[in-house]
Structure formats: structure tokens, C-alpha cells
Amino acid sequence: MSDITKQSLTELIENIKNKKLSSTDVTKAFIDRSEKSEELNAYITNDFTSALDKAKKFDQKPNLDLKLPGIPMAVKDLFCTKNIKTTAGSKILNNFVPTYESTVTENIWNEGAILLGKLNCDEFAMGSSNETSFFGNVQSPIDKNLVPGGSSGGSASAVAGQLTPVTIGTDTGGSIRQPASFTGTVGLKPTYGSCSRYGIVAFASSLDQAGPMAQNVRDCALLQEVISSYDPKDSTSINFKRNHYSKELTNNIKGKKIGIPKEYRVDGMPKEIEDLWQKGIQYIKDCGAETIDISLPNTSYALPTYYIVAPAEASSNLARYDGVKYGFRAKGENLIDMYEKTRSEGFGAEVQRRIMIGTYVLSSGYYDAYYLKAQKVRKLIKNDFDEAYKKVDAILTPSTPSSAFKIGEKTNDPVSMYLNDIFTVPVNLAGLPGISIPAGHDSKGYPLGLQIIGKAFDEQNILNIAYAMEEKINFKNKITDWWIK
Amino acid sequence: MSIDLKTIKHISKLARISVDEQRAEKLAGDLNSIFDFIEKLNELKTDSVEPLTSIAETTLKLRSDEVKSKNIREQIIKNSPQDNEDYFVVPKVIE
Questions:
Q1: Strands A394-398, A257-261: pairing kind
Q2: How far is A207 from chain B (nearest CA, A)?
Q3: Angle, to 10 degrees, between the axis of helix A23-35 and the axis of helix A48-60?
Q4: Rg (CA), chain A
Q5: Would you state the torsion angle of the CA atoms of residues A457, A463, A465, A466, taken in this order, to the nearest 10 degrees?
Q6: Which of B11, B43, B79 shows the shortest C-beta gap to A325?
Q7: What is the model's pTM?
Q8: Which has fewest Cβ within 10 Å: A114, A127, A128, A293?
Q9: How confident is the model at residue B1 (pLDDT cuts 50, 70, 90)?
Q10: Residues of chain B contacting residue A414, judged by C-beta atoms under 8 Å apart
Q11: pLDDT of residue A2
């Protein structure tokens, strides 16, 4: 079967269960395509040889009761994988081999999936275009020299380019939903506390969440079901009743109330995005749900709040990279000199910039003016959502204020790069779940996404809305295989 | 507000990241434009707002302090940037 890599996760599982395909067939197909796709630069590390071994072993004694039986999968290189190099896209972790496995990836392997390799990402997940990676930028399968978005850019590129059936990314301010939107794929950021953060290289601990990225909503629901678990090893993991998201998936959203927040109509937003949003509102109505105009008055303060909270937490989390116990070390005349040179040479420009911002806002004399202020505004942003959810079940917005841009287009202006996350950041600040689904194309033929934001722990509801809308939208991703010679 | 080179040098010291003059100037420019953008928060009155310190409204649980990873010393030391069988090596601290 030459079209194995075109199949959805759900189809692949069915074909493996019906013995129409073996795990070896599937694994081989994705390895072949990955090997032909070096130009995308989606992988940092591949584990193809041992993936094939594992697939053969699976086929000898297949356990078809598992949720991901013999399914190969590449994951973002922010997840620690035991005995396999984990870099977080940084020079400072270029030679780091974890002695433990992240809970989220362990959940995936426990359901029978097989690691293909580790996917490129912005350094320490700090970026919106995958251009800050020490291992080079990632190309989008949509078009040459187009960014796949970030920070889960390698993940988005790999799913859209069919190098992996599904994948996982992490989302601190939009790092799953924005690249999903840029590449015509589906990406879910779960409620804070749904997926364990244990073994994920930390960026901003009060915002980070792992989540699934897939070609369609059903695949996304299934992977969410696998990765979400209560984990005592993460002190912020929450013990709530988790649904069987894929089993309970329904396109019946009749009578649901969907909020349309007027503050998301931002200045300078292209007409294409506004039109897409209006189309989305129509789809919602076509599905028998109701739309209600709502207000989230503090929306415009979310991004400035985020650029205090996230760098502050990052500066603290990244203090551990000092060249002593693991990772890159530069030569220094004494201990302090060694620290300073290690961090100066080991971190890239964007990471240094954010550590500097974080250090500044936490430094003596500035803490109240910046960090405390940001925590208070964060409360106001959360209150906005709490208030809105008294009237509605979910909220519909565009995923991003524009379609994907060219590599190099925004690298010199950090603020314009940050503006990419304007619609996704409030969701992280409030700890809510959000999903981006592909909903159309712009005039250049690049994908555009819509975002559905849910109440905390209400993943099932936004998956259902996404599922119902997906059917109406009937999106077809335009992948031309331009990178395959 | 303006962040000058002296402040950049001070923050870089606190952050333990050495920066040369050229980089310091670039950083000052970047940080000033980012902080101009952040200043927007001052439009909001927040005197009576309680800060949000934790998004997960749960209290932290206690757990017993048990060793779960055993015999991984060798693997841990293997990641050390300077080879040594028994301990981590750093530049000399005491003369």
C-alpha cells in the first residue's frame, strides 16, 4: 500500500486491527517518507532503526486491545525520552540524554505506540515560527520558505507532511494551536492540569500544557484520551473524571450556546480572517447551535501580561542550565565565569532576551510594578472568562490574526512576532482548553484556523463542537509534496 | 521608561549571562520596545484585585519522601560535561 501515510490515525488502527496492515508496514511507510523529507528539517533526532525493531516485535505478538496498537509516532523534542537525546531545540542540551521518560510519552508507549524520533521546535518552546531552534528552522509542507508556526513547528510540519500519523506538542501561549492553524491541522491545548508536565522541559510552569496534534478531530480526541492522566509526579496535575473522548465524540451540538467575543476583532486584522470567523459562526448555526455576542473586556491586556508572567517563570526555570551536571559547558576562568559563558554561548538570542525580561521583572524594586501587576491582570482575564461562561458553553474565535508568514519575515521585530499569539495567549492565562481546527484558505492558498475555547475540564464539549464543524467545513489540506524530489 | 546599558549589564549579571557591548545595545533596544508594549498594563486600576498565584485551584498534596529511581548514578554522571567517574567537576572555587 503506497498510500499508508495518507491514512488517518483512526484508519491505521482499524487496518492494523483487521490485519490488513502490520505495524511493520505502517512504520516502514512513515520512515520512508520521513527519510525523503529531510528538507522540512522536522526531525532533530530519529530513532528509525529501533522503531522498526519494535514494530517487528509488535507484529510477532500483536496486542490489538491497546489504543495505539503498533502505531509509529514522532514527538516534540521537549518531552524527555529515556536513553534518547532530548534537546528542547537548544545548544545547551545538545548532548543531554534523559534517564527517565515523561509521563505523557510513557502513556503513549503504554498504549502500544512506537517512537519514530524527536521533532524540531523553537528553543525551549520560545517562538512562534520555529526559527529560534539551534537545529535550524523548519519548513512548512504548505509552501517552500513558509514558517510552520511555533513553537511546535516540527510537530505541525510532520503531521501536515504525513511524516507521523499524529503527534504531541506543548502549548504555553499558543504553541500547539498556532502551528496547527498555519499547517491546516488540528491542535488541542488541554485544560491546565489535564496532562502531566512531568518530564517536559519546563518553560513557564503555570502555563505549559502538552496536547495532541492530528489531521482530524477524531484522531485528536483519541490521542488526548491516551495522554491525559492524573499524575502524582506533577504537583499541579488534577484528579478529575476524564472522558473517553473518542468514544463519546458526537456531532450533535444542538442547543449549545457559543460566545462570540467582540474584543477579538482587533485593529488591522485582515478581512480574510474576519470573513473566516463569520463563516465559522454560520457553520455553528448550521449545526443547530446558537451564537451569542459576549465581551471579554480585558483581552487586549493578555499579551502584555503573558510577556511578564512567561519570561519571569522561564528565567527561574532556566536557571538550572549552568553547565555543571549536564548539557553544554563553556570554558571559564573561574566558576562564575564558566556559568556566564556557558549560558551566553549555550542559549540563543530569543531565550536570552526572555531570561533578561524575566530577571528584570523579578528583580528588586520592580517586582510589584511588573510581576505582581501581571498576576492581578491575569486574575481579571480569568474573571472575564468565568463571567462569559455563565452565559455560554464555549467561545469561537480565529486561531491567529494572520496566515503563515515567510521565514525571516518577522525575526527582527520581537513584538510583531509576539502578536501572533494574541488570540491564543488568554486561554493559557486562564488555564482553559482550546482547540484549533482548519477552516479555510487565504488568497495565497495558506490554511486558516478557528479556535474553540471551552470551560475548564470541558474538552469533550469543544471536541464535539470541533467535530461537528469539521463535517460542515470539509477542509482539504493542499499538500503538494514540493520538498520530495 | 528606558532601559539603559548599565541596567542591561546589571540584569545580565543577575541572570549569569555574559553580554558584550554589541549584544548589550541590541538587548537594550529589544527590551525597550517590549517594555513599551508591556506598559499598557498601567491603564488598568488593580489596587483591589487579588493576584492570581495558581491557576489550578487545588492545594498541594503531601507525599512520602521515598527513593524511586535506584542505581542511576552512572547514567546521571554520564551526562556530566566533564568526564569523571565519581563526581561532577567544576572550575576551582577555593584558592
A1: parallel
A2: 9
A3: 170
A4: 21
A5: 140
A6: B79
A7: 0.97
A8: A293
A9: low
A10: 30, 33-34
A11: 54
The verdict on a CB contact (< 8 Å) between A356 and B50 is no
**Cα B22 from Cα B9, distance rounded (Å):** 12
Q: How deeply is A383 buried, as exposed, middle or buried, from its count of CB atoms within 10 A (0-12, 13-18, 19+)?
A: middle
Catalytic residue (one of A54, A67, A76, A455): A76
**Chain A residue with minimum CA distance to B69:** A100
Which of A194, A236, A360, A379 is the best residue to mutate to test the B interface, defined by the most B CB atoms within 10 Å of its own CB? A360
- A240 contacts on B by Cβ (under 8 Å): none
Decide: A227 and A261 in contact? Cβ < 8 Å: no
Cross-chain Cβ contact A370/B38 below 8 Å = yes
User: How open is the CA angle A299-A311-B33, to the nearest 5 degrees?
Assistant: 70
CA-CA-CA-CA torsion for A109, A110, A113, A117, nearest 10 degrees? 0
Q: Report CB contact under 8 Å: A339, B16.
A: yes
Eight-state DSSP code of residue B59: P
Q: Which one of the listed residues A23, A140, A151, A157 is annotated catalytic?
A: A151
Paired strand residues for A114:
A72
CB contact at 8 A, A482 and A143: yes
Q: A-chain residues within 8 Å CB-CB of B65?
A: none
Looking at 3.90.1300.10, 3.30.2290.10, 3.40.50.150, 2.60.40.10, the CATH number of the domain A13-485 comes to: 3.90.1300.10
pLDDT top residue among A386 and B67: A386
Provide the greatest CA pair distance for chain A: 70
For residue A364, indicate whether it is catalytic: no
Verify whether residue A443 is a known catalytic residue. no
Domain that holds residue B34: 5-43
Beta strands at A447-454 and A434-441: parallel, antiparallel or unpaired:
antiparallel
Residues of chain A with pLDDT under 50: 1
Say if the Cβ atoms of A206 and B55 lie within 8 Å. yes
For B76, the closest of A99, A327, A357 (CB atoms) is A99
Q: Strand, helix or coil at B73?
A: helix
Q: What is the pLDDT of residue A469?
A: 98
Asked if A402 is an active-site residue, the reply is: no
The domain total for chain B is 1
Residue A268 confidence (pLDDT): 84
- Convert A335-355 to b/e letters by CB count within 10 Å (16 or more is b): eeebbbbbbbbbbbebbbbbb
Is residue B23 within a helix (H) or strand (E), and if so which, with residue range? Answer: helix B21-38
